[in-house]
Design goal:
The chain is built from 15 helices and 10 strands. By secondary structure, the chain is of the alpha/beta class. It folds into 2 domains: about 190 residues, D-Maltodextrin-Binding Protein, domain 2 (3-Layer(aba) Sandwich), CATH 3.40.190; about 100 residues, D-Maltodextrin-Binding Protein, domain 2 (3-Layer(aba) Sandwich), CATH 3.40.190.120. The strands form 3 sheets. It has a 5-stranded mixed β-sheet with strand order 7-6-8-5-9. Strands 3-10-4 form a 3-stranded antiparallel β-sheet, sandwiched between helices. It starts with a helix and ends in a 6-residue tail after the last helix. The N terminus is likely disordered.
Length: about 300
């Protein structure tokens, strides 16, 4: 079974690399070759491209394997088909390592870092951006109703059960750390008729166009800024932390210790506001990912113009 899974992953990775070959950051290769992976959404495309450009500029030959599913990327890293990619603490803790929820960002990071040692994976520095779930409202609507936190939202729904419509993707609707768990934690209940299910990419537009009043989303999404949305404060810390960090195979890190130092420098310069701005430029202003990535690296002094 493992052989079959390895063959499937190899085929997926080969296809991905072929699809990305025209846009790969292929450096001189003087220092060695690194294969950088990435998942299939805007933030990951940006992180993958920034990583690739940085390593290329420092003398490495880089192959990109972007637009991968989470479990495919993780398996490819464990199997040695990838050398590194950016992962999120909450995803690793809950999905890959099957651990209980940890709400403290530093403790979650230390836990995944410790547990992944046995998998031959090294977690580099945790960035100060948290792409966790977020409950969003339009800024004007939130002010009108006096809602700034999830406690405020719960109180309003309990007093006005049929007034607000909520947009959710299918995953958030069904997950224990999604809508059902949120309702239980905060003591409210959205009527089923007021819940509108749709794809993740549509919820922001639905909120912006006033088709719904509240939506789930992701905390670093650029459309929060682009559409003047506000994230309701999670004052009971229901949602787990999803801080981004580069994860690299220990064998690769031992062979190329400079790569770890370079990515730690990059990770230390990223925060929530930065990721929102970068995502905004790509998702809302429709700027090229490579351009956005290179400009940020240059601005931060990580590469030369």
């Amino acid at each position: 079974m493992k052989k079959i899974m390895f063959l499937i992953l190899s085929m997926i990775l080969a296809t991905t690399l072929a699809a990305c070959s025209s846009d790969s950051a292929s450096g001189s290769g003087d220092k060695g070759k690194i294969t950088v992976g990435g998942k299939d959404f805007t933030e990951q495309h940006i992180l993958t491209k920034m990583t690739s450009i940085l390593l290329k500029e420092k003398g490495y030959k880089v192959d990109e394997a972007s637009s991968m599913g989470s479990t495919v990327a993780r398996s490819a890293l464990e199997n040695g088909q990838l050398d590194l990619y950016w992962e999120y603490t909450g995803t690793a803790l809950l999905v890959y390592l099957k651990q209980p929820l940890v709400t403290d960002p530093d403790k979650a990071y230390e836990k995944v870092k410790e547990l992944d040692k046995k998998n031959g994976l090294a977690w580099l520095n945790k960035s100060d951006f948290n792409n966790t779930y977020a409950i969003l409202m339009r800024e004007d609507r939130a002010k009108e109703l006096g809602i700034s936190s999830l406690d405020d939202l719960a109180n309003y729904i309990n007093n006005n059960p049929n007034k607000l419509k909520f947009a959710s993707n299918a995953e958030f609707f069904a997950r224990a750390d999604g809508l059902k768990g949120l309702e239980k934690k905060y003591g409210f209940d959205f009527p089923a008729k007021n819940i509108v299910k749709m794809d993740s990419g549509l919820v922001y537009n639905a909120l912006n166009e006033k088709q719904v009043d509240v939506t789930m989303g992701f905390a670093t999404d650029g459309r929060i800024k682009g559409f003047n949305l506000v994230e309701l404060t999670d004052n009971k810390q229901f949602f787990p932390p999803y801080n981004g960090a580069p994860v690299i195979r220990e064998k690769t890190l031992k062979q190329y210790p400079e790569v770890g130092k370079l990515l730690n420098q990059m990770a230390d310069k990223l925060n929530g506001d930065t990721m929102k701005e970068l995502n905004y430029r790509v998702d809302v202003k429709h700027e090229d990912v490579s351009k956005v990535a290179r400009e940020w690296l240059t601005k931060e002094g990580l590469i030369k113009e």
